[in-house]
Specification:
The structure is a single chain. The chain contains three helices and seven strands; from the N terminus they run βααββββββα. The protein is α+β, with helices and mostly antiparallel strands. It has one domain. It has a four-stranded antiparallel β-sheet with strand order 1-2-3-4. The chain is elongated, with a radius of gyration of 21 Å.
């Protein structure tokens, strides 16, 4: 069975929705009061970030590497690994070689997190089956 890669892990949509609501509130208050300078900039930045939370991925587990993405969708950092079985989900974080990578579980979409966990477990089961099959019986 081959590894089901790439696996895209996206932001939790709740963060994007909350951000959109806050940005609309900030922009609405700015336009109603007529004081546009600081509020309109803050609301605009929050609107941009919230839209990124709704549309972009946090990281992509691709063959041989984990790619960290920014809110524009560009790959900013790569963490190499040899097999999907080498990755682990511990303490609410994805870890490559024991080092945390990407955002915490609370920031990520639950279905994507669970799909990544299943893929890692399947890869570990496949490695253990392959390891058990290659052992020669003791005399």
């Amino acid at each position: 069975m081959s590894e089901p890669l790439p696996i895209a892990v996206r932001y939790n949509q709740a963060w994007g929705i909350v951000g959109l609501l806050c940005s609309v509130f900030i922009l609405g208050v700015a336009f109603l009061t007529g004081d546009l300078f600081p509020q309109a900039i803050t609301g605009g930045i929050l609107l941009f970030v919230s839209f990124g939370f709704l549309t972009q991925t946090v990281f992509v587990v691709a063959p041989g590497e984990v790619q960290l993405r920014n809110l524009l969708g560009m790959t900013m950092k790569r963490h190499p690994f040899s097999s999907l079985a080498d990755l682990e989900l511990r303490d609410g974080r994805l870890r490559v070689d024991g080092k945390p990578v990407g955002a915490g579980k609370f920031m990520l979409r639950g279905s994507d997190w669970e799909a990544l966990g299943r893929a890692i477990e399947d890869a570990r089961a496949e490695v253990s089956r392959a390891g058990a099959g290659s052992r020669s019986p003791a005399p």
